[in-house]
Amino acid sequence: MKWENLLSAKRWGSEDKNIEDQAEARSEFQRDYDRLIFSSPFRRLQNKTQVFPLPGSIFVHNRLTHSLEVASVGRSLGRIFYNRLKKSRPELDDELPLISEIGNIVAAACLAHDLGNPAFGHSGEAAISYYFTNGDGRIYKDKVTEAQWEDLTHFEGNANAFRILTHPYAGKGYGSFALTYSTLASIAKYPCESLAGHDKSKIFRKKYGFFQSEQAGFEKIATELGLTKVEDNYLIYKRHPIVYLVEAADDICYNIIDLEDAHRLKILSYREVEDLLLPLANDPKMAERLDEIDDDDAKISFLRAKSINTLIGQCSELFYKEQESILQGDFNHSLIDQINEPFRTIMKNIETISIKKIYNYSSVVQIEVAGYKVMGGLLEEFIPAYLNNNSHYSKKLVELIPKQFITKETDEYAKIQTVLDFVSGMTDLYAVELFRKIKGISFPSIS
């Protein structure tokens, strides 16, 4: 793979239009960032669970605040790489006119990386998959292809994000986001189809990155950018190099900020968090500086900022050092897993404690269980109604699905995706309210 191919301002759905003058207020990749910021799917992230239940009396992160913070870290990672590269190659900007935009590409991709996640965090993904593997959805196995069934039984937020950004929803216009090819490729952590996913020995195949319905679209982007295609029975590509920076920004933020939220909720004590973050802050005078601060929350915020700074430095240095291996598609690790010691061990300790004390905390488990019931309950009502639509009740349910999701396709897979588009896009609150109303648990008010 070569940077001159990998960096492209060509826009999805607007390939035949001239690229606007980049000397204006915004570059093409800054336009990507702004289009995402002002989009409805991005705004809905404010009411989607990150880890802890929403809303609460104590502020914790949601998907929107998480995505904004990831974008901030991602921009720094990209900018540091560009500055390092330019120092060693003064003629760089003449050779690669778009190389200076790497920070903006990473930031835009970071904003989009969670767009496809349904309500209730990762349990929402699991609940959708469970409906098809163990719920009423099992009856549809013989009505779709093997590859389509793999999409449904392993519903993937990464693939759903790519669909949201490229699918021509009714009334929205083809390519309504019209993001650049480079930004779209940079959100594909697992650039392969679902039948090729779930191979944990290869970083680009741990999950999958596009549904069967978007396979041709991803091929088009991958071909344009020169992504390395893997010779296999399935469609598989090596990662776009910028994916590593997007992934690193996400890893840095959720690992560190989940600790901060856990402290605010009194799940972890100040001393527990300090013991983890103080060595990660990598500042010999840090203990003295903390003594000057009285408020524990402020201390944690200071530790968080210094820790993130350390990890940005570690990951950006590693990306620069390993760029040739990454461009060859041979770097089979996330950046965070290959940083220097003692920081690598510290991050492993954070992961272990987070799993034990945060992700298995009672309220977190409760929201996961609720997600199964709510998401599964919505699917068991809407999917049969939309596919059959042969009763007064079914017709009324179908009327609740926004027209933008309704498809003209007649095959079962496309119809099921219509309902999944609708349900996966819901916020936590809307999903719960709709579930209660259609199940007769609560009665809608007349406004």
TrEMBL record:
Q: Name one Pfam family in it.
A: HD_assoc
Q: Which UniProt keywords apply?
A: Hydrolase
User: HD domain spans which residues?
Assistant: 63-255
Q: Which GO terms describe its molecular function?
A: dGTPase activity
InterPro entries membership? dGTP_triP_hydro_central_sf, dGTP_triphosphohydrolase_C, dGTPase, dGTPase-like, HD/PDEase_dom, HD_domain, PHydrolase_assoc_dom
Tell me the first and last residues of the signal peptide.
none
Q: Which PROSITE patterns match?
A: HD
Q: Which GO terms describe its biological process?
A: dGTP catabolic process
State what protein this is by name.
Deoxyguanosinetriphosphate triphosphohydrolase
